DNA sequence: CACCCGATTATCT
DNA sequence: GATAATCGGGTGT
């Protein structure tokens, strides 16, 4: 399967957020080893037209990647603990749009992810935006990375997977909380569920 | 330069 | 359901 090119990302974020479900995320480390997973959850952020977006109030040092070319990674640090991975989408329908990758289903490098996440529970490895960045060793040093080349440390591959997609409001935001801009695999056990107890598996 | 709080997670009750 | 952990971006003084 081939690396997704810029034209994939250079569309409106709602389209990309839906279409990115089922694609494979591949992280190549400095030693050449690979970690990968199938994207099962993503959200659209429409830049300067979206009150929930970091880019809503204009360009700052943190969000400037969002104002650049589609197909680059926007990685930010939040809550003093976590990194989140976004992919910049088209600027033709409003400036600075991006898609937040919220969860993947681990495919390869699972043993290494377990070490980094300090758990043996496979469903806990990458079922959340902060979790997957920890598992995939993604931090701000990768902010701005062009993800459209074969040798990029982060890239996406096309797949032939057919995924049943569900739609909902976005998670963890207060502004524009009613917009149905979250897309996820209807059947995947790897979709983020922050209200689910990690050890008991019970919903609270 | 002080203050507030966040596109989260783990752990406790 | 609630909260601690812990950093730094963004805003306003």
Topology of helices and strands:
Blueprint: H1 6-9, H2 13-19, E1 24-28, E2 34-45, E3 73-78, E4 82-88, E5 98-108, H3 110-117, H4 129-135, E6 154-157, E7 165-168, E8 182-185
Antiparallel strand pairs: 1-2, 1-6, 2-5, 2-8, 3-4, 4-5, 7-8
The structure holds a DNA duplex (13 and 13 nucleotides).
Q: How would you describe this protein?
A:
With 204 residues, the chain is an alpha+beta fold. It has a single domain (6-185), classed as Methylpurine-DNA glycosylase (MPG) (3-methyladenine DNA Glycosylase, Chain A). It contains 4 helices and 8 strands. Strands 1, 2, 3, 4, 5, 6, 7 and 8 form an 8-stranded antiparallel β-sheet that branches. The longest helix has 8 residues, at 110-117. The chain binds a DNA duplex (13 and 13 nucleotides) through β3, β4 and α4.
- By DSSP, the count of extended strands is 8
End-to-end separation: 40 Å
Can you say what the CATH homologous superfamily is? Methylpurine-DNA glycosylase (MPG)
* Estimated helix fraction: 10-25%
In N-to-C order, the SSE pattern is: HHEEEEEHHEEE
Radius of gyration: 16 Å
Q: What is the count of distinct domains?
A: 1
Poorly predicted residue ranges: none
Largest pleated sheet = 8 strands, antiparallel
- In DSSP terms (H or I, runs of 4 or more residues), the helix count works out at 4
Mean pLDDT: 95
Q: Fill in the CATH topology.
A: 3-methyladenine DNA Glycosylase, Chain A
Q: Give the DSSP E fraction (strand runs of 2 or more residues).
A: 25-35%
Structural class, judged by helices and strands?
alpha+beta
User: Under the CATH scheme, which class?
Assistant: Alpha Beta
Q: What is the molecular shape?
A: globular
């Amino acid at each position: 399967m081939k690396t997704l090119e810029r034209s994939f990302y250079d569309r409106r974020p709602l389209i990309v957020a839906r279409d990115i479900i089922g694609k494979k995320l591949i992280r190549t480390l400095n030693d050449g080893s690979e970690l990968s997973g199938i994207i099962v959850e993503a959200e659209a952020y429409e830049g300067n037209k979206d009150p929930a977006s970091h880019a809503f109030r204009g360009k700052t040092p943190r969000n400037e990647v969002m104002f650049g070319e589609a197909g680059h990674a926007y990685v930010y640090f939040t809550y003093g603990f976590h990194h989140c991975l976004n992919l910049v989408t088209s600027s033709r329908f409003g400036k600075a749009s991006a898609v937040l990758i919220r969860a993947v289903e681990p495919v390869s490098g699972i043993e290494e992810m377990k070490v980094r996440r300090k758990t043996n529970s496979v469903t806990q490895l990458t079922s959340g935006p902060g979790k997957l960045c920890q598992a995939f060793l993604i931090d701000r040093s990768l902010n701005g990375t062009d993800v459209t080349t074969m040798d990029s440390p982060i890239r996406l591959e096309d797949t032939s997977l057919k995924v049943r997609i569900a739609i909902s409001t976005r998670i963890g935001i207060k502004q524009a909380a009613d917009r149905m801009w979250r897309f996820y695999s209807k059947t995947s056990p790897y979709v983020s569920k922050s209200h689910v107890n990690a050890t008991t598996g019970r919903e609270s």
